[in-house]
Design a protein that fits this description.
Layout (H helix, E strand, L loop, with lengths): L1 E2 L10 H23 L5 H4 L5 H23 L1 E14 L1 E7 L13 H15 L4 E7 L3 E8 L2 H10 L12 H9 L10 E7 L8 H10 L2 E8 L5 E2 L1 E3 L5 E4 L9 E2 L3 H11 L3 E4 L7 H8 L4 E13 L1 H16 L12
Parallel strand pairs: 3-4, 3-6, 6-7, 7-12
Antiparallel strand pairs: 1-2, 2-13, 4-5, 8-11, 9-10
Helix pairs in contact: 1-3, 3-10, 4-5
């Protein structure tokens, strides 16, 4: 047995308190009578008084209070099966994990901040199918579209900067991999959320944006980084920084947020652009935008749920109160013939 709202179980502690108060009131009444009347007059003053009936009355009051508390906590036992239709939107998260996402201009680094925002999206988009794509010089599908949020969280934990075989940043490759995850039908709009610092070394984006628009894909983008930028640390042994990435002339590479491309993709596909700089940013605008879209059936599944049985406790409380109302510690006097 379990309870739908176990926080209310503490109300059951009122049962002994109610019994104690009722017993105290009756004892005080009997003491008041005993103070001015002798035992011999009790039968006339309290006709048919029976201590056991008084104890029963107090016990019934305690049972009524305890049963009411249990009913409010909504006890559940037994299960019933119910077929439920899942409705939602297909959303693919595309995370840029290129070396530039290791820049520490956003504490502790850009990729860590992007992963936190991705987790916020996973939580906020509960009920929708989610997929996950990692992108650098190539795109890699980590999780196909699924209702299991734990799968997406698991792969988010595994992401590290510059971990794909092909280095560089070609965001269009990641978007292309994301589009392959969507089903062929177009009953609703498809949604991609791209988290990146905007640095891209790929081909011309005109064709890529045109394809996204023709396919009905809405791309929301999140720019992670700052305009001031930061140097790119290179890890040595034991995850310790072994220096910074250098350009062809031997100078340290300064990586900055490049929002122009991200803003353009979001604007031309009907998406939302938000920025994560040094201050925390909520993913709420994107969650709200997805929630406003028309949903499609994601299939049905058989769900087993526990049956609520609060009616039994409520019935016990009512029965106890009715019996208590019909119970008196004094025996009724029969009418004279």
């Amino acid at each position: 047995m379990s309870f739908a709202d176990p926080r209310l179980l503490w109300l059951a502690l009122l049962a002994p308190l109610a019994a104690a108060i009722a017993g105290w009131v009756w004892r005080r009444r009997l003491r008041a009578i005993a103070a001015w009347a002798s035992k011999g007059l009790w039968e006339k003053l309290l006709p048919g008084y029976r201590p056991l009936r008084l104890a029963l009355l107090v016990a019934l009051l305690a049972i009524a209070v305890a049963a009411t508390a249990l009913a409010l906590a909504r006890p559940r036992w037994g299960t019933h099966a119910e077929r439920v239709e899942r409705r939602g939107v297909d959303v693919v998260l595309v995370l840029d994990t290129s070396l530039s996402m290791a820049a520490p201009d956003v504490a502790p680094d850009r990729l860590s901040a992007a992963k936190l925002l991705a987790r916020d999206l996973v939580t906020g988009l509960a009920g929708h199918r989610l997929g996950l794509v990692q992108t650098e010089g190539e795109g890699e599908v980590l999780a196909p579209l699924t209702l299991d949020r734990a799968v997406v969280d698991l792969f988010l934990d595994s992401l590290t900067p510059a971990s794909l075989p092909t280095p560089g940043t070609r965001l269009s490759h990641g978007l292309g991999r994301a589009m392959l995850l969507f089903p062929p039908d177009q009953e609703t709009r498809r949604v991609v959320v791209l988290l990146s610092d905007g640095e891209d070394h790929g081909e011309d984006w005109n064709a890529a944006v045109k394809l996204l628009k023709e396919s009905g894909v809405i791309v929301h983008t999140i720019g992670v980084g700052t305009a001031e930028g930061a140097l790119l640390p290179i890890e040595g042994e034991g995850n310790a920084a072994a220096g910074y990435k250098l350009d062809e002339t031997g100078q340290p590479v300064l990586s900055r947020l490049q929002p122009a491309l991200l803003q353009r993709v979001a604007k031309e596909t009907g998406g939302v652009y938000i920025e994560r700089g040094r201050t925390a940013t909520a993913a709420t605008p994107i969650v709200d935008a997805v929630s406003r879209l028309a949903t499609r059936s994601l299939g049905t599944e058989l769900v087993r749920q526990q049956q609520e049985r609060f009616q039994w406790c409520l019935g016990l409380a009512v029965a106890a109160l009715l019996v208590a109302l019909g119970t008196s510690p004094f025996r009724r006097q029969e009418a004279a013939a």
